[in-house]
Amino acid sequence: MTAILSSPIVQPNAYLLQPGEEGVIVGFTRQELAASLMAMGVLPGSKIRYVRRAPFGGAFYLAIDHHFLALRQTEFEAIVIRK
Amino acid sequence: MNNSSSQTHSRPFRLALIGNPNSGKSSVFNRLTGLQQKVGNFPGVTVDKKLGSYELSNGEKISLIDFPGAYSFYPSAQDERIVVQTLANPLDENYPDAILYVADFTRLEKHLLLFTQIKDLGLPAILGLNMADMAEERGREVDTALLSKKIDAPVVVLSSHSGEGFQELEGYINQLTQVETSHKTTSFYRPNTIEKRVALDLEQAFPNNTVYQNILLAHHYQWLPFLSDDKRQLIERVTEEHDFKTLRHQVQETMARFDQFEPVAKATIKETATDSPGFTEKVDRILTHKVFGPLIFLLLMLFVFQAIYAWAGYPMDGIEWIFGQLNDVVKAVLPAGWLTDLLTDGILAGLGGVVIFIPQIAILFFLINLLEEVGYMARAAYMFDSLMHFFGLNGRSLVALISSGACAIPAIMSTRTIANWKERLITILVAPFISCSARLPVYVVLIGFVVPAGDGDGFFNPQGLAFMGLYLLGIIAALGTALFFKYILKTEERSTLMLELPEYRRPLLRNVTLNVWDKVRSFVIEAGKVILVISIVLWALASYGPADKMAAVEAQTATIATAQNLDANAKEDLEASLKLEASYAGQMGKYIEPVIRPLGFDWKMGVAIICSFAAREVFVGTMATLYSVGSAADDESGIIERLTNERNPVTGEQVYTTATSASLLIFYVFAMMCMSTLAVVKRETKSWKWPIFQFFLMTGIAYLASFAVYQWLA
Predict the structure, then answer these.
(1) Mutate which of A52, A72, A74, A79 to test chain B, going by most B C-beta atoms within 10 A?
(2) Contacts of residue A71 in chain B, CB cutoff 8 Å?
(3) Predicted ipTM?
């Protein structure tokens, strides 16, 4: 079960996505963010698509399985994906 | 079925509404309760607990509690805590008999986490699948019978728009009130070895708890308020002994639960919609566009404030006219005397000062609520997060700052959704700088003395622009102080943003109007009480004074009148103005006059400022009372006219010059003059330190700014 907390060196994190690109979530790098992200529906196995960046930089507009979420870079980076 | 158990309730059956944020929970609550609802002491968007009552078809009344939206029993923000805090404690005064769990039908797979946690507490629950209309558009169908069997709870498909499913829902609620509640726990989650051991060790101290309740205690013992120190220490010992790591167990539990219910949800739901980008995504290409997004936001805000200025004028004129008429009627019907004076110059003048705000408050709340209902506010928070972050705030602070344009009190309460304490504290400290609706009338009255009226072509009149300038000044002050606090306040806490961007949806007029009604009502009642009392006290203070001084006035009037050969009317005016000066109010104003003289204020303004500390909205009422007491001529003339006619009795110069009015305006932009706000700040920060600090900071800035403006203009 702790496998969902993986190291960022082994797998790419979502931050490497380009706008419009999509991936599948496989886990998180930071335990303290994982539980809250998961409660909001950001789950291993979910599709994640990077839609766009906020007007003044900063937050990321993401689609998680057809639903939309805004995250800052720290949270975005904590998501480990498989392209 | 029998109805024996319904008699065993000594109090009404209590049903709690629980669900994720954006599940449309409040719409369901509003649909069920209508006007039969009340909020705590202050208004706010489901931030505080809302209570309502609902009558079943058999006549039994049950009470409903609307809890703040929460994603799970592991809260990340203050307002989410109330859910676990209440449900983990069967002795809590709000502990419900049953739960109505509201989930967004369109995203059921993600909305059941909290539901399964609630089921594990052994509470009976109904699952309401809300937003049926949106699910239908998408071709989403659910096998309610199958789902109901799998989750061991009645399932009902609801639409707050059309009312679909509400009759069926009532049937299920009815059943819950009839049947003895069974404390059977369904197993959505099998605790692991460590959790089991911890729960077992806590069993002796908490014999009535379910296993899951004890696990929750192990997670949250550090902050749960109902635990005694002994129990807290016990739990701490137990968790240490078993090496219970709350974060790790949260993640594992959440994962295990999703693994359990996601397949269930998927098996019972059929979806026929295509994969094309939906309406929301298309709209957001423009509304959150790098350039158009912020531009549209600014235009929207400009529209909101122009709307207040343009639309509120007519009803306000109407209200002023009605109070003028009432005044005349009272004066005509009742004999002249102190009682008539109290009624007209005290009570009616004060009441008028309250009622006159209603159009502006209603329009502002209506528009802001509409934007919130549609789902736009979350976009605004997303777009401006980095900007807000720069100032030490959070994207969510933006919503609070905008609501502050209506009233700082609900705004400060809404900061509970900001998880980071420092960001929340800064938002609380700077929100009152944003010009609230109570400053509106002061602006309206005084702007006329500083900026000439436009040529009447409507949208861009100079007064409207000056008005916007005052708001901008407030915003600049708020952001500037926020930046200052960002560097002086220290915190170890991480700052995060996890913001759901809900699908755009048709606003429910019922929700918006109920919200507006709520706020207007609480304004009239809460602020109205204060204003009315102050008006009466003021009237008394302005009408009476030390006997010797008042007597001296009469002699003085007679001397001056004979010397200057005044007619009866002028003599009466002179006497009234001298009397006011000699009255208790006049004495108080005079007492502080040396302090406010450099700002260009006279003692009458001093009286108004003193009274404004109770609540800013008192200012206009105070002015109305003070000047109506002072003028014998025409009582029905509006406050602006009275101020224009106000002359210095010695020099005969107009009192409300550009410099004085501008200085007074600036003072009202910055000064902290609202006891209710300070009280809320104390409640939210749990210390007097912050409200006191805030008071001196804001009022200090106000004094210096007014001083600069007056000295420059005069």
Answers:
(1) A72
(2) 497-499
(3) 0.89
